[in-house]
């Protein structure tokens, strides 16, 4: 790989060379386009690095990506905001570095897997020749996107393109465990402030159809425990006020609410990201014995854990009232505690969403860029779970979640995660168009507005 790379890098640019004479220093460093086989093999190489939580090999990932950055002619620096958790920052300088920059973000870590339940080992990046599928943990979430950014930049450079504004790429650690030592720390750093970011692109989800999904906000997690206390008693006795009875009344109310929300999704009235989801994370009760539980005793304590996700437009006070009055009323000897309670608002007190309409000058550019590359964006959605994009939106920056994977089942965090070779290659063309469009100064409004937001 390495020797091949250096030989293609020095090959002369035949076509258009005279036109590019005035850009000589940059034209010389531009590489000729890689073959699809080379592009796929670079993707596989990244996928083969085991960056699974809880012990991701960040050093190997960053070493590999630095090599890719060199090949793409990007400036690279590694920030270690937290020891052992490197964040790779790449920069493609624009002609006018004072303009707000565009940040292309991706995370390097992946979730764990159960290898014995996979058809191909999760870090083999096996390419099934018949179907064209590349199987690997991270093939959808989100090593695909990180490599597509780099491949798109290589192509743009070899075509002689020079951005007006700075383009930054970040390869960040720890997204899969909450991003606290990754993007959350990064947005507070002086390095980040100096980047003068105007727009962020981050991860999205695949779609089964032809349209690409795009996300303009996400639901906020509330992780909640509810504890019940009650009079203990004989398992044969019917009486009121046991911990289990007190808690089961809550379980019934919670399930009723869950059904009402889920029905809205099932009927098509609302999208997944637009309802409040609530799921039981654990149930904990009983009096244990060495082999099981005491069967003729009603315990004096019982507990449940809930994972609740709230869309940005939710009525917070109503939700808090529901909790205090229906799900965990003290009158029923219940108490509740938040393990996590993320705000649905940004630091200015506004819903943490990025306008996906003409009020945001970046939006038509993104739409147009995808269209120009032969793709189509679906209706903008609220991301049902959490991504690092929330940290950017929280500080008032526009951020879109977008992973160009059409005709693809959602296999993030699932067994046999795969991405087809053709979708991957198509996605590079999409990013080529996106980067070209966003990097080119056309509409000065974009820059005035972005600056006003900062
Ligand atoms: C709550 O606990 C108190 C004190 O143990 C008890 O008197 C009361 O009956 C309990 N209420 C319920 C609804 O369980
Ligand atoms: Zn992800």
TrEMBL record:
<keyword id="KW-0963">Cytoplasm</keyword>
<dbReference type="GO" id="GO:0006520">
    <property type="term" value="P:amino acid metabolic process"/>
</dbReference>
<feature type="active site">
    <location>
        <position position="109"/>
    </location>
</feature>
<dbReference type="Pfam" id="PF01546">
    <property type="entry name" value="Peptidase_M20"/>
</dbReference>
<dbReference type="GO" id="GO:0004046">
    <property type="term" value="F:aminoacylase activity"/>
</dbReference>
<feature type="binding site">
    <location>
        <position position="176"/>
    </location>
    <ligand>
        <name>Zn(2+) 2</name>
    </ligand>
</feature>
<dbReference type="InterPro" id="IPR001261">
    <property type="entry name" value="ArgE/DapE_CS"/>
</dbReference>
<feature type="binding site">
    <location>
        <position position="107"/>
    </location>
    <ligand>
        <name>Zn(2+) 1</name>
    </ligand>
</feature>
<feature type="active site" description="Proton acceptor">
    <location>
        <position position="175"/>
    </location>
</feature>
<protein>
    <recommendedName>
        <fullName>N-acyl-aliphatic-L-amino acid amidohydrolase</fullName>
        <ecNumber>3.5.1.14</ecNumber>
    </recommendedName>
</protein>
<dbReference type="InterPro" id="IPR010159">
    <property type="entry name" value="N-acyl_aa_amidohydrolase"/>
</dbReference>
<dbReference type="InterPro" id="IPR052083">
    <property type="entry name" value="Aminoacylase-1_M20A"/>
</dbReference>
<keyword id="KW-0732">Signal</keyword>
<dbReference type="InterPro" id="IPR002933">
    <property type="entry name" value="Peptidase_M20"/>
</dbReference>
<feature type="signal peptide">
    <location>
        <begin position="1"/>
        <end position="30"/>
    </location>
</feature>
<feature type="binding site">
    <location>
        <position position="413"/>
    </location>
    <ligand>
        <name>Zn(2+) 2</name>
    </ligand>
</feature>
<keyword id="KW-0479">Metal-binding</keyword>
<feature type="binding site">
    <location>
        <position position="141"/>
    </location>
    <ligand>
        <name>Zn(2+) 1</name>
    </ligand>
</feature>
<feature type="binding site">
    <location>
        <position position="203"/>
    </location>
    <ligand>
        <name>Zn(2+) 1</name>
    </ligand>
</feature>
<dbReference type="InterPro" id="IPR036264">
    <property type="entry name" value="Bact_exopeptidase_dim_dom"/>
</dbReference>
<dbReference type="GO" id="GO:0046872">
    <property type="term" value="F:metal ion binding"/>
</dbReference>
<keyword id="KW-0862">Zinc</keyword>
<dbReference type="GO" id="GO:0005737">
    <property type="term" value="C:cytoplasm"/>
</dbReference>
<feature type="binding site">
    <location>
        <position position="141"/>
    </location>
    <ligand>
        <name>Zn(2+) 2</name>
    </ligand>
</feature>
<keyword id="KW-0378">Hydrolase</keyword>
